[in-house]
Amino acid sequence: MLEAIFVMSIFLIILFVVLTVADRGTKFYHTASTSASLLEAARRGLDRMATDLRGTGLSIITDGLGQPLVEGLAYQEIHLRRNPGYTDTGIPWDEGEAIIYRFEYEAQEPDNGVDDDGDGLIDEGVLVRVENGSSAQIVQNVKEGGLSITLQGSQIAMKVELEDIDENHRRLEVSAETAVYLRNP
């Protein structure tokens, strides 16, 4: 009888260790999966911006007020025009509407320092692309102040920071960066 109790005790200890390891593995999987999804979304958004920027020139990229970019300053909104093609007189850059990239707060999450939508994040937003009056959310879960577009010589450096809460109620943050060298002044 004593041997049976001893064997059961050892079995329960081993079972507890196995279940603890399995639980930690599952939590790690969920955290890593959420982080990977956030990073993939950030990369897709930056790739979209980079594609648009590659077909433009520095002289037609402006800030949200229509002013030329100042080297070293970080912007959360830029306006640009793509190369619409060529004519006998050159490239008609000024034709058509501008493409706009900017940070916007989520509809349920105004800029007030409070978690208004109850998701555990404060004042998060989205990266928005506007063209021809049509607005599209390119990246969600953008951290407040998490979009940075900076002119550095002949390149535009872009960084986006995302945040989310995973299934384990852990706050996760990821960031991605890229740069585009501008061919045209």
Description:
By secondary structure, the chain is of the alpha+beta class. It has one domain (2-181). The protein has one helix at 2-54, and strands spanning 62-63, 74-75, 77-80, 99-105, 125-131, 134-152, 155-165, 171-181. Strands 1, 2, 3, 4, 5, 6, 7 and 8 form an eight-stranded antiparallel β-sheet that branches. Strand 6 and strand 7 form a beta hairpin. The longest helix is centred in the N-terminal third of the chain and has 53 residues, at 2-54. It is elongated and about 100 Å long. The termini are far apart. The model has no long low-confidence stretch (mean pLDDT 85).
Secondary structure elements and their pairing?
Blueprint: H1 2-54, E1 62-63, E2 74-75, E3 77-80, E4 99-105, E5 125-131, E6 134-152, E7 155-165, E8 171-181
Antiparallel strand pairs: 1-3, 2-6, 3-4, 4-5, 5-6, 6-7, 7-8
In short:
The protein is built from one helix and eight strands. With 185 residues, it is α+β, with helices and mostly antiparallel strands.
Structural class: alpha+beta
Give the end-to-end Cα distance, rounded to a whole number of Å.
88 Å
Encode the helix/strand succession as letters: HEEEEEEEE
- What do the pLDDT scores average to? 85
Provide the helix percentage.
Answer: 25-40%
How much of the sequence lies in strands comes to 25-35%
Radius of gyration over all CA atoms, rounded: 24 Å
Beta-strand segment tally:
8
From the spread of the alpha carbons, the general shape counts as elongated
The overall number of domains is 1
Count of alpha/pi helices: 1
**Main sheet makeup:** 8 strands, antiparallel
User: Which regions have little confidence, pLDDT < 50, spanning 5+ residues?
Assistant: none
